[in-house]
Specification:
10 helices, globular, Rossmann fold, 271 residues, alpha/beta, seven-stranded mixed β-sheet, 15% strand, binds S-adenosylmethionine
Length: 271
């Protein structure tokens, strides 16, 4: 083969590699994979029905992203995962004595969604650990818990997860949701420490498996936005993301778990 042909093939191969790598690192691909080409916003943003028998009489909050509901939520991150949670946790829905643990609750959106859609039996509970270092967010959490009409089902544990997990019962929880500090060191300690609180057969759900912090506007390598985004994402994918911690955990705990779901969130079942 002529040198010119070889060089042409090498250039085409490099261009294809970079194009695939570029797509793989976009937020759309990291969140949805192939579904980014087929799904509409309505398919992925399932809107929860916030009115339940227990809170039917509560006045509308008039605030946040669901002003007609009794809740005050300004962040709806969990909306993107509702379909996956419905599928992954449907076997727990409505059963008595089901207990969830959430590390990182913020305004209480994901906890209250779980309460109203999975932990629906009166004897089921959710334990919420959060450092609550912002008074405004803690006040919203407390207000939202009261607005459920069943505040006794939500056990609030305030403090850093690395301390508070130690106070919990062994083998108590049917699922653990890890959504606290996103730095790898904390994700790893949250996973290792809360593993013991999970029942055999229980699920551990990691948020942000493929998360990469968005490139700050001032961080520019070439001054061409899409190239700067690519270089930022390339560097960030194994650094400031929960992923390296989750990968290490999966590797070391491989004999004791099976991966049951892997997309933007990752779910494992304890054997
Ligand atoms: C992304 S938010 C949680 C969102 C929530 N799960 C939802 O979907 O609505 C992350 C939360 O983790 C909490 N957090 C961060 N570091 C923590 C730590 N070391 N211990 C406990 N909570 C922590 C923050 O205060 C924040 O409320």
């Amino acid at each position: 083969m002529k040198l010119k042909t070889l060089i042409t093939l090498a250039v085409i191969a490099a261009a294809v590699y970079i194009a695939i790598d570029f797509i793989r690192l976009t937020p759309g691909w990291r969140m949805y994979g192939w579904e980014m080409f087929t799904k509409t916003d309505d398919d992925v943003l399932a809107h929860p029905a916030w009115r339940t028998e227990a809170n039917a009489q509560m006045p509308a909050s008039g605030e946040g992203i669901f002003p007609d509901s009794p809740y005050v939520f300004y962040e709806g991150w969990h909306l993107f995962h509702i379909h996956d949670w419905e599928n992954n946790l449907k076997h727990l829905r409505g059963k008595p004595g089901i207990h969830g643990l959430e590390i990182g609750s913020y305004e209480g959106f994901s906890a209250i969604w779980a309460l109203q859609n999975i932990l629906t039996h009166p004897s089921s509970t959710i334990t919420c650990i959060d450092i609550f270092d912002e008074q405004k967010i803690e006040d919203r959490f407390d207000r939202n818990v009261a607005a459920t009409g069943t505040p006794e089902k939500i056990i609030k544990v305030k403090g850093p997860s690395e301390h508070m997990i130690r106070t919990l019962e062994i083998n108590k929880f049917d699922y653990v949701y890890i959504d606290g500090c996103h730095l790898p060191k904390w994700v790893l300690s949250d996973a290792v420490m809360s593993w013991e609180t999970l029942k055999p057969g229980g699920l551990m759900i990691f948020d942000d498996y493929t998360h990469i912090d968005a490139r700050p506007e001032h961080s520019r390598f070439t001054r061409i936005n899409f190239i700067d985004d690519y270089l930022w994402n390339k560097r960030g994918q194994y650094r400031d993301s929960p992923r390296p911690a989750i990968d290490v955990f999966l590797d070391i705990y491989a004999p004791y778990l099976e991966v049951v779901f892997k997309k933007y969130q990752l779910v494992v079942r304890k054997k």
